Amino acid sequence: MSIFVHVEGGFWRRVSEVVKSEKRMNVVRLLLKYGISVREDGLYIGDKVKVTVSSVAEEAQVDRRIVLETLKRILSDSYLREFFYNLRPAGPSLVSVARVLGYRCLVVEIHEDRPGILAWVASALAEKGINILQVVAEDPNIYREPKLYVVVSKPVPGEVIEKILQHPAVKRVTLS
């Protein structure tokens, strides 16, 4: 999943104005990707798990000083400080381990973001009695080609995929 920053929106405009470099933007993307919160005393996943500056630097492929400067800039801006202070991870994703658990994962790619895509997919699955266990929807303001990941309890018949593909915003559906 490659992450992309859409800078025209209000949030991304603010981030861009504050961090002012592509390397620091890489750090911000990483914080968002993992739900890492920024506090005066460090980086956290949840309330208690500390994350090292070095590990963020390594993952973002930048020097530690870039991470420290990014954190300093985030903390200097009241809006970004509040946002990143309260940021939390969404929880474990079953997308990569669905098969290990005996589940399947539908990956729905779209042409454009529109209301009703998730409802359409859920309806097509419900008609065949297929239980949805988890949904992960990538934010179209963050991802260049956002995807909808739907982890389901059992195999998905071809007619369900055909039904999902009838939605005008759906480009492609794959099953893993």
UniProtKB/TrEMBL annotation:
It comes from Thermofilum pendens (strain DSM 2475 / Hrk 5). Residues 106-176 form the ACT domain. It comes from the Archaea. InterPro entries: ACT-like_dom_sf (IPR045865), ACT_dom (IPR002912), UCP004897_ACT (IPR014424). This is Amino acid-binding ACT domain protein. Gene3D superfamilies: 3.30.70.260.
